[in-house]
Amino acid sequence: MPCRACNRRHFISSLPPRRMSTTVAANVAIVDDQDPLIHYTGVWQTSGGTGEFNVTTSFSSEAGAAATLSFNGTSVTVFGTVAAETEPNASLTFLVDSSVTGAYTPPNGMTSDIHHEALWASQSLSDGPHTLVITQATAQAAGVIFLDYIMWNTTSHAVPAYFIDDRDARIKYTPPWRQFGSDPDFMHTSQGTTTVGDSLSLQFDGTRITYWGGINNGSVGQVLNASMSIDSGPPKYFVPGLQSASVTTNNLYFDSGDLQPGTHQLTVTAENAHTVWSDYFLVTPNPVSSASATSASGSTSTSGTAGSDSTNSATPPPVKKSSHTAAIAASVVVVVVVLIALAGAIFFFLRRRRQRREPAGSGGTGEAAWPGAGGVHYAGGAVAGPSGTQHSGPDNKLARYQVPPVRANGEEAPPQYEA
Fold first, then answer.
1. Strand partners, 151
2. Strand 38-41 relative to strand 66-73, pairing
3. Each residue of 66-125: pLDDT tens digit?
4. C-alpha span between 59 and 134 (Å, rounded)
């Protein structure tokens, strides 16, 4: 179904925001009608327009068709689009945990479609798991009631995304921006500024954030310019192309991409005098820790160490494993070095002993290589000479020494060295 009212925007500063009738918790989860968390039975069709969440809606022309969502939270609200029909013949019923009930019937005499309509909101629920069943009670061939998205107040991190409306108290506008309200806006509210330097900041816990708002039409060079930064990092700029209507809604201004789990801050600044809009934000929650997952399931883990922090794990931290591996490797290296040094000492001792026992060649004196054989000279630093002292010769070569002469009684004379 086309979004027939998305290209019209009427700014009514006095229009009260349409909010969930139950008290909004710190986190409001949102799920699109096409999300696999919603299970459909019966015949359903898909539709959607640019002003609807993820540009999709679902409807059924079959009585008895149903949509089911399981969630953890304290209240739930179903939002949708309602087509203009003079005498609509369609209705939905709502059931939570087989006890909480409700229904929606479109009003007669509608002249234009309505969007982001809160079709039904539950009363306060106990904090825990619940099941919502939406049933097409009466139906007509043409779609009348279109499911768009479902929100629920929750303390759980195991949700697709958190929704943050432009009126959320966590958003700081500096100075305050002008407040508006219109049918195409989410929750029927938005805020805007035309003053260079005006900004908003939002601190959030999560691994990603997207920022959505409206765009005014303008001629070339007459469009908005906004800068966005995360944690005071380098800014990214949003300069849209020309719009086909006077104002379009549900436009993606900024996508942070993946962030490290933790607390972050988004800052948005108006860079020129063309309206920068704020409609809503979507935050990907931080990963669920093993401790949180255990608490949510109501089971007690037998792994881990008592008294450890909330991110318990049965696997030792990698840093400890690396330390043990390094210690073992160092011990092996020391043993190998000692063995090599011992083998070298034995080798030199045996070689020197054999050289002392060999008779001197003809000529009485001559050059001998240290420590090899065959007249090869070894270059290098200082090495141990025959007497165990260090000797080095010119040009970083080994010092030469004379073969000790043999006395008449068969004993060797002390060796004579020359530089």
1. 30, 77
2. antiparallel
3. 999 999 999 999 999 999 988 899 999 999 999 989 999 999 989 999 999 999 999 999
4. 11
